[in-house]
Amino acid sequence: MDLQATTSSVSKGCFVFKPSGKKRKRSIGKYICLANSDDRENGKQRFAICQRLWGKIKGDTEALQDELNKKILDSLLEFSRKWASSFQCKPDDWASHMRANEIPTAALVLGVNVPDHDMTLQSLSDLLQSSVTPFVVSVQAKECAALKHLMQRVFERLMGVGITVDEEDEEESSHCNTAVHQKRVHCSMNTLCQWYKSVTKKYSAVSPDEKRSVLNKDALPNPPVVVIFKDLEGFNPRVLQDFILICSRYTQELPLMFIFGIATSPSTIQNMLPHSVSSLLCIQLFQSLSCTQHLATVIDKLLLTHHFPFKLSGKVLQVLVSIFLYHDFSVRNFIKGLQLALLEHFHSQALSVLCCEKKEALLSAQTLSHQDVERIRQLPSFMRYVESQEPQEQVELLTSDERVKETCEKLLKNLRKYHKNYYPVLRCLHSLTSALPKYPLGKQIRELYVSCLEKNVWESSEYGSAMQLLRMLAKDELVAALQKCTDVLEQCKAKKMKRASQQLKEYISKFEKLDRHSAGDNTAEDFTSPEKSLQKKTDLFHLQKTLLEMKESRRTKKMSPFEVLRNEVLDFISSLVRTHLALPDEQPLHEVSYFSSSAVLRHHLNATPRNSIQTALSHPYRYLQNEALKTDAGTVSSAAPDICIVYKLHLECGRLINLYDWLEAYSTVVSAAEGKDPESADYGKVDELKHARFIQAVSELEFLGFVKSTKQKTDHVARLTWGGC
Amino acid sequence: MPVQLQHSGYSAEKLQSLTESLPCREAQASTLLALMGEPDQYSYPSIFIYGHRASGKSYVTLRVLKELELPHAAVSCVECVSPGLLFEQVLLSLFGHTAASSLPRCPSLSDFVRLYKQLCSQNPAKQTRYIVLDRAELLRDMEVNLLPGFLRLQELVDDNVTVILLSEIVWDKFRPNTGLFEPLLLHFPDYTKAELQKILARDSHPSYPQELYSFYINILLGVFYSVCRDLRELRHLAALNFPKFCEPLENGEAKESDTHKLWRNIEPHLKKAMQTVYLREISSVQWEQQQEMMEKEAMAPKGLSAYTHVELPYYSKFLLIAAYLASYNPARTDRRFFLKHHGKMKKTNFLKKHEKTSNHLLGPKPFPLDRLLAIFYSVVDSRVAPTASVFSQISSLVTLQLLTLVGHDDQLDSPKYKCAVSLDFICAISRTVSFDIVRYLYDFL
Amino acid sequence: MSKRKSRETHMTSGECVSQVQRILRERFCHQGLPEKPVGLDSQYKHLLELLKRTAVHGESNSILIVGPRGTGKTMLLSCVLRELMDINEVQKNLLQVYLNGLLQTDDRIALREITRQLNLENVVGDKVFGSFAENLGFLLEALRKGDRGSSQPVLFVLDEFDLFAHHKNQTLLYNLLDVSQSAQAPVAVVGLTCRLDVLELLEKRVKSRFSHRQILVASSLTFGQYLDNVRSQLSLPQDFPDARFGQEWNDSVAKLCEDKSVEEILQKQFNSSKDFRSLHLLLLLALSRVNVSSPTLRAVDLLEASRLCTVDAKANMLHGLSILELCLIISMKHLNDIYDGEPFNFQMVHNEYKKFIQRKSNSVHNYEKPVILKAFEHLLQLELIKLVDGSSSKTQREYQLVRLLLDHGQIMEALQRYPQCPTDVKQWAVSSLA
């Protein structure tokens, strides 16, 4: 059942599609306001903020998409331009003449995250249309069952022959009507050629400035005709072969060009096309960047920045990431998840009014209603803060709203500062550790981020080992790493960070100085020598060993100036970490901007319909909340709804269920519920009513897809579920 | 000097030019001419010409018809999505536009014949008309009456017309059980090595001497002749690898005289080309680009099938692995593989190899969904909830053609699947999740 | 231009040859009618009688002319009609309608055709008819409205008669035969077919309306007659413009027919099939070798022609394969021997091939799998091997089951004729061990 339920929606690709963003947003407003109708005002405000934030996020991600695809799209454009120009002046050099009538083909490998493809291909075709040729057609597998249809689609979209649906239907059914006539004429390739000639003549005819409007400045006298096959895997090989064969006969008159959108791997082309056909193509490969990189950039741009006041807690982030990694590779879905989190946050957290840009936040902080102030007082983080104050101050905070508002402003400012410093330090820690062998703190920055959100990094053993490894770095490596850190810190404006980067700079210069004296200084060398051996990244075990022996040496000899300096630097770094990478949960008012209810998110994004049905059937109490139904695990009270009883009974049966036995068992259970005494004659005897109820229950089960009637055996039904899950 | 084509009824110089344009095909051309007879004489109703790809079937036929300016219509059956198109094109090129447009919608053969009759009664044939149908094997897939109809077209329209069918497939495969008008069979044999040499040598590079090029062709044939005799392919290969061949000459390492050096230079290179270029795995353009690359770091050119790796979500990988196991292991062995403590299963009765051949020879077997899931849950390390997205991944694997749905996809309960990936592929996948699949495969026990 | 020349009695050899070509080609290609059908005299008489009755006395009739392809059914009919048309009352009276099962693929088309051939389009105009019968009736009615009281006799010739039997509940046949039964209008229905079991195809109601007249055209020629026929077919008519050349030609033809080797060939041809068309094919091939330089028909020409006719196409194709493809074929052959004729898939073939390579690595270059797969596909394209119906396109190509459509002999012959085939491969082919 589940499978089928999803299949329909995912015929396009991997993944369950949620309703489109627009539809949801319309409902948002009501959703949030209704949530707490006591103060609509606040609700409206939150809704507005939510909208704004989402709009921002959306815009940024789209920009990101384009920027990420830029490289491959450009190369594709380059490719098509090259061919287009070669179409113009048939170059009469030997080589190109030898490879006449090959159709240039771009094999565009997009990865398995099918839902994301459309966007890419769409922007591609737009780009082509704007800059290379007006003649771009994209076709999908599911609309091209037969060669006839494929050609129809291509022709329609090229020549703009509007063919309405009903005509097509006629075309399918009856044999002679005008629509068919038209199409028959259209569908021959040389009519297309004639059309092309006429059109191109028109283009060359129109005056240059007009042409600019049609095409762009480098418009060619006869631009190529590009056919984009969106999902190559889906196409029927025969159809594709025939189409290519036909096209190849017209390469002279018609400058054709193909683009294959491939989800899996280029070798599918080989699998689909026999040699005789593939020899007609001039295939060039284009690999889009992997979706994990894509995700990394998205996270980097959206989450690891203080520009967005809205934050995810570690758990939530993990949920989203794991959905991405385990189930779909779809960035689009990731962002949708983010959207959902945003929505949930603004819905559930009344204080999210404060979760917005600085000025606005401060403003709304002043105009907090009494209720909100109370809410603030309830916040655990705020309470903790209060306790940390002097008693007199505490009283103030607990009594006067104004006081609270002031502090609230202060705290908001602090929170903001905290974020300002948090991310730079995080990045610079990552840049230090990401080069280490075995990545103690994780390769991707998101892993580091998660662990930082979970608990204080510096208390973790990984952190310790990382530091140890750092303490063994050779100079050049270390300096390089530090350099990176400084670059990171350079970028942000926060004073603290500026200072930090200054210090690092000084350290670096010190290192260089050191370098200069200790030229030819033998002590330095024989210490650096074991470290040199570390430069080639050896396995951890080996590292430990060397580490030990270095401890030895350290005990015996005094440390070289280099080592001293190195320790200083690392201490400085770790001090940075300790000061700035503190847990967000410890920050007062963090609830305002952190969304932490991962369960909700998982429940929405990674639904388990089957489970919920089964729990409903096996533990009706969960839903009905009727004390009578409360039972210990495994059993079902005989007072439960019929379907539950029937379900329970059917779990004990095998592949085939004898209806009569089933009925018997059922009636026994039910009559137990009626509280008849087991001795009485008609105990467990089947009357019409029970029979009717039983039948109804069974048909309900059938409707839910647990059983179905079978021909194998008379008055039996077949079970469709396996095990007793 | 090739034998001069000669035939009464055609001017000598035309035949002369024809001869030149048809190297190594004089024999076939002259036979064809002889069969066609003089333009105003009757010719056999239908001629069936068969031979391998690029053995000059259509080329010779069309050359002859064009050079001698005989009225003819050349149609490739690939293009004819509907018979209507076929008729249209024939009439178009025999009688011009007006004729073609006067065809009714979705014309039947009888319409065609009627129209043809009426047209050629208007302008009766002074010369034999020819209808050339390329890739005639496709006629078999169209309406049943089409092929027999065209074979006896002369009789049907009662006009001096000859239908020439071209195909790679032998005539025996065309004959329906009730039989039909037998055409005149004519075979175009494949070119011999010498002939290939001769023809390929014709298109020599302008800036290099003729004999050098023919020497190069000689080497080329030495490598490729055993695998490919398709003239088109060979020409393509020649064109691509020639620059490489010339390199030593360009940078003065060798003179045109020291052939051995040239040979040593090009030979291994050609062998490499067999993998990629011959299979058209990389385009001519890319091939040339990769030439430069290979100069720098000595790596073999990567073909399309070199990029078999597919990035999949974590669970999709396991689903695929499970599918592979399910379709290559007999179901009865599942207990042995996937139960932690599979009781007392005697090694003997488990390992009874009554199957003659291994499953990797016979191919994947279909399996029901629940078996897939059972195996999936036992191979995947963590506990996975049967979420909607797990199921959706299965169907998405189907759309990616990594799994195939067996039977009708309308049966809701227990759909059956097959795994459609190769052993290497699945091994690569399972390596990424550090799952030793070979240990779980019945064939490799 | 040669036409004008041919007025004169003397011509250059070139012109003579082209004349000969013209005349003979007329016979061979366009089935030019002989003055008298050979060996079909009784059938001829019978048919003529029958049609005369319809044409002259206006009585309806129906008859089937049955015989294998190319035995001269059409020829017989048209000879009869030729004679019939010489009677001038018939000429202006009899109407003819030719229908062909290949063209009139359904009754709608057929009816339109009939209307056209009786040129009654204008009469029918855009009337709409309830049933087929009604329509046909109207047509025949329209004929009656001729100048004479009784309506004109119509001759329906149904070529490929068996195909009409496949039309939707045989409406056309039913109605035609029905008309021919009930004397509403004088029609003669003549069906030509090569299916001897054609009557089995007819529905009961149709069958019952058919007068079970059949003419069986199976040429019962003796070889002698056959030979005479060949001679007559080849020899020029008396009124050949250049008498001397004509005479020479005919003499040479006569001589040719005595020739032993020629006789053998013809014997062979005769034994394989007696029908005329295949004979015509043979003769045409021979004739096509006659030209100015060799103005007479020689034995070698005929030999050559017969060679062309009897060549094994598959062997030809095999000759064109590459070594690799040949190797695959051989391994398939071995597979056939192992699993006596069971279908196999690429994987198995590849296995066999690998085994061979391991044994004889030096002889054949060891190709990678994709290359081999391509070769395999090529064989599939050439239909030298064929997919088993069951194996759907869904299964991977490596595992699709196929059958080899070549027999042992063909493969061996091909191997013998193969240019520079490595000896190892040959041995492998003959060796029993796979």
Automatic annotation (TrEMBL), chain A:
Record bears the keyword Endoplasmic reticulum: no
Keywords: DNA replication, DNA-binding, Nucleus, Phosphoprotein
GO biological process: DNA replication initiation
Protein localization: Nucleus
Record carries keyword Lipid biosynthesis: no
GO molecular-function terms, A-Z: DNA replication origin binding
GO CC list: DNA replication preinitiation complex; nuclear origin of replication recognition complex; nuclear pre-replicative complex
Residue stretches making up the Origin recognition complex subunit 3 insertion domain: 366-597
Residue ranges occupied by any Origin recognition complex subunit 3 N-terminal domain in the UniProt entry: 6-354
Cross-referenced Pfam families: ORC3_ins, ORC3_N, WHD_ORC
Location of the Origin recognition complex subunit 3 winged helix C-terminal domain: 610-722
Quaternary structure (record): Component of ORC, a complex composed of at least 6 subunits: ORC1, ORC2, ORC3, ORC4, ORC5 and ORC6. ORC is regulated in a cell-cycle dependent manner. It is sequentially assembled at the exit from anaphase of mitosis and disassembled as cells enter S phase.
Role description: Component of the origin recognition complex (ORC) that binds origins of replication. DNA-binding is ATP-dependent. The specific DNA sequences that define origins of replication have not been identified yet. ORC is required to assemble the pre-replication complex necessary to initiate DNA replication. Binds histone H3 and H4 trimethylation marks H3K9me3, H3K27me3 and H4K20me3.
Family of the protein in this entry: Belongs to the ORC3 family.
The protein, known as: Origin recognition complex subunit 3
Organism: Chanos chanos (Milkfish)
UniProtKB/TrEMBL annotation, chain B:
Subcellular localization: Nucleus
Keywords: ATP-binding, DNA replication, Nucleotide-binding, Nucleus
Annotated Gene Ontology cellular component terms: nuclear origin of replication recognition complex
Cross-referenced InterPro entries: AAA_16 (IPR041664), ORC5 (IPR020796), ORC5_C (IPR047088), ORC5_lid (IPR048866), P-loop_NTPase (IPR027417)
ORC5 lid domain span: 213-280
A UniProt-annotated Pfam family: AAA_16
Biological processes annotated in GO: DNA replication initiation
A molecular-function term among this protein's GO annotations: DNA replication origin binding
Domain of life the protein comes from: Eukaryota
Keyword Nucleus: yes
UniProt keyword Nucleus present: yes
Domain spans labelled Origin recognition complex subunit 5 C-terminal: 312-441
The Orc1-like AAA ATPase domain, residue ranges: 22-164
Transmembrane segments: none
Family: Belongs to the ORC5 family.
Self-association state and partner proteins as the record states: Component of ORC, a complex composed of at least 6 subunits: ORC1, ORC2, ORC3, ORC4, ORC5 and ORC6. ORC is regulated in a cell-cycle dependent manner. It is sequentially assembled at the exit from anaphase of mitosis and disassembled as cells enter S phase.
Xref: PANTHER family: ORIGIN RECOGNITION COMPLEX SUBUNIT 5
Function: Component of the origin recognition complex (ORC) that binds origins of replication. DNA-binding is ATP-dependent. The specific DNA sequences that define origins of replication have not been identified yet. ORC is required to assemble the pre-replication complex necessary to initiate DNA replication.
Protein name listed in UniProt: Origin recognition complex subunit 5
Organism: Chanos chanos
Organism lineage string: Eukaryota, Metazoa, Chordata, Craniata, Vertebrata
UniProtKB/TrEMBL annotation, chain C:
Protein location: Nucleus
Domain of life: Eukaryota
Gene3D superfamilies in the cross-refs: P-loop containing nucleotide triphosphate hydrolases
Keywords, in A-Z order: ATP-binding, DNA replication, DNA-binding, Nucleotide-binding, Nucleus
GO molecular function, one term: DNA replication origin binding
Entry annotated with the keyword GTP-binding: no
Domain AAA+ ATPase: 59-220
Pfam families: AAA_16, ORC4_C
GO CC annotation terms, alphabetical: cytoplasm; nuclear origin of replication recognition complex
GO terms of biological process kind: DNA replication initiation
Family, per entry: Belongs to the ORC4 family.
Subunit record text: Component of ORC, a complex composed of at least 6 subunits: ORC1, ORC2, ORC3, ORC4, ORC5 and ORC6. ORC is regulated in a cell-cycle dependent manner. It is sequentially assembled at the exit from anaphase of mitosis and disassembled as cells enter S phase. Interacts with DBF4. Interacts with POLQ.
Protein name as annotated: Origin recognition complex subunit 4
Species whose genome carries this gene: Chanos chanos (Milkfish)
The gene coding this protein: orc4
